[in-house]
Amino acid sequence: MSGFGFEVRSPEEAIEGIKHTVLVMSGKGGVGKTFITVNLASVLALKGYSVGIMDADIHGPSIPKMLGISGSRMYQGEIGITPVVGPLGMRVVSIDFLLPTSDTPVIWRGPLKSRMIKEFINNIEWGELDFLFVDLPPGTGDEPLSVVQELRKPSGAVIVTIPTEVSQIVVRKAVVFARQVKVPILGIVENMSGFTCPDTGKTYMIFGAGGGEAIAKAMNVPFLGSIPLDPRIAEASDKGVPFVVMWPDTPATKAITNIALKIAKKLGENAD
Amino acid sequence: MSGFGFEVRSPEEAIEGIKHTVLVMSGKGGVGKTFITVNLASVLALKGYSVGIMDADIHGPSIPKMLGISGSRMYQGEIGITPVVGPLGMRVVSIDFLLPTSDTPVIWRGPLKSRMIKEFINNIEWGELDFLFVDLPPGTGDEPLSVVQELRKPSGAVIVTIPTEVSQIVVRKAVVFARQVKVPILGIVENMSGFTCPDTGKTYMIFGAGGGEAIAKAMNVPFLGSIPLDPRIAEASDKGVPFVVMWPDTPATKAITNIALKIAKKLGENAD
Which residue positions in chain B have pLDDT lower than 70? Predict the structure, then answer.
């Protein structure tokens, strides 16, 4: 972990320039948290906000790959570590920037992961940001606990699910978690909601239907919207270009833009 | 954790009746590890083998829901805890059987999770089993490390991916992890490989194409096969019936059956 000093500032000092901190979480893996983090952040960066992304997934950091900045390095600045600047001027921090190769697994138990998260918050020169999005790994263990503890009062959490019932059960745990640690729930996003066949125009509910709204209703939290399946999402992610930048006129981009603006408004910004 | 005593047997005694232990892992969440675990186990149970499943996902236990036995309870027997008996006589252990409700999040840091895994191996009355499948959570942290340490020499690992490049990066970490902890890699399974539209017969590569084979080749590990997307998979999983039981004559069932038989053969069984 070269470059990580031990003179850690107080968390208050480290994040005093950040206006809103938004956790993107799920409880369940593979529902598209990273895709949604990258694209919510991109929408707000396109609107002129200054945006940062913290990749809190220590074992499976995918933010850099999705932004096309994998292989970049973070350096020690005067006060702390300088984030990597990605597309749209977004400031990005990820353990990927500290690994020798992208194949290297981070075989760490909890205490070391918590230490890393602490460094990511207290020892990074975040500067002035309107929004800091935090991409959390699945589960309700060390990483989300440490993020919540170090950020003190995150502005809110966006909870991501896919429509299947099996996912919903795990995602409901995330809702209860957010309540227990007193993070306001901004709402639920349903990802992978149906595939519209480009040849017939017919929509197939590959992962079932309506799960996100069902949880939102059952758990009494706002429903922010659904994002459809689109093969171009995997393509853009693999190319390292935010989907909303690469495919601005698509149903998925419209859905993500609406969700991002809802979040900004809930946090008191006059976005449109 | 009522019912969990502290007279822990030696790991050797606890698992001496288990012939083969197979870890299903990925590094990445949401690639279908649980679906694959349940259905590989079901194929071998249908062939007459005695099979157990250990759900090592402490934060997001989904095995019970997928087997239709959520809400069951485990009890203290004479020697240790008795697993729940699920479909096809499979013996199942999951933290879900110890939680007051399915919404309850397990907000635990690493050391407690490791303790639980240790109990799941040493203090369970597994009895005689041909195969024990272990469904690991995403990542290369406490849970997989503890499973590997407690099982001493697992027979092998099945590594699951989906076709996208972003997934591949994380899954490659799982391959390196398995090598570092000296677990033989049985091979790679690619899940969600294309959706064949039932109306046109045309296949859409919703998550890209060929990722599993590409990793297998690049990392020099066997490729076990691909499983196509099928809306009936989510449906069967939500209903709690193993897909291979509910839909025996489908391309997905054929693919899973082939993979299960390859695994059994690699472990020295005369399965067909």
Answer: 1-9
What residues 235-264 of chain B have any CB closer than 8 A to a CB of chain A?
A: 235, 237-238
DSSP state of A83: P
d(CA B17, CA A268): 61
Distance from CA of A22 to the nearest CA of B (A): 20
Dihedral angle sign, alpha carbons of residues B45, B48, B49, B52: positive
B236 to each of A164, B56, B68, B233, B257, how far by Cα in Å? 10, 22, 10, 5, 17
Token digits of residue B111? 């050391």
**Residue B129's beta-bridge partner residues?**
B18
Could you tell me the two tokens for A272?
A: 């449109």
Which residue shows structure tokens 């693999």? A238
Tell me the three state secondary structure of residue B113: helix
CA distance A187 to A221: 6
Run means of pLDDT, 10 residues per run, chain A, 272 residues: 52 88 92 97 98 96 96 89 96 96 93 94 94 96 95 95 89 95 97 92 92 93 96 95 97 98 97 80
User: Within A47-109, where are the H helices?
Assistant: 63-66
Q: Which residue's entry shows tokens 């349903």?
A: A190
- The ipTM, to two decimals, is 0.87
What pLDDT is recorded for position A138?
92
d(CA B164, CA B167): 5
Q: Are strands B185-196 and B156-161 parallel, antiparallel or unpaired?
A: parallel
Dump pLDDT digits (tens) for B33-43. Answer: 999 999 999 99
- Closest C-alpha among B191, B219, B265 to residue B29: B191
Cβ burial, residue A103 (10 Å; 0-12/13-18/19+): middle
Please give the domain boundaries of chain B with CATH numbers for all domains: 18-265 (3.40.50.300)
A210 interfaces chain B, CB cutoff of 8 Å:
no
What pTM does this model have? 0.92
Number of neighbouring beta carbons within 10 Å of residue B199? 10
Residue A218, both tokens: 């059952």
Measured in angstroms, the CA of A139 and the nearest CA of chain B are apart by 5
